[in-house]
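Handout, page 2. Input:
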Amino acid sequence: MSGSKYPEQFRKDAVDMVRCSDRPLAQVARELGVNHETLRLWVKNADRADAAAADPTTAGLADEVRQLRKQVAELELEKEILRKAAAYFAKEMGR
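Output:
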């Protein structure tokens, strides 16, 4: 969005105006001197960004799941090694 002729802060303020106002989006757009479709797109993009930020199933959890699965695989391998070692030593002690 860096190619926009409107500064980032102006766009954020415009979106806030739409969200906090009981006026229709088209009216807010007229008051700001912005095309109503442009303002609608800003609001839509802001809604998506807010939803992505609020959604805990994003990249952070995916990384955590990947890490935990790796840890589980390592622990299962360790458990199998210890089980075999315990069986071996039990057999040796039983002789």
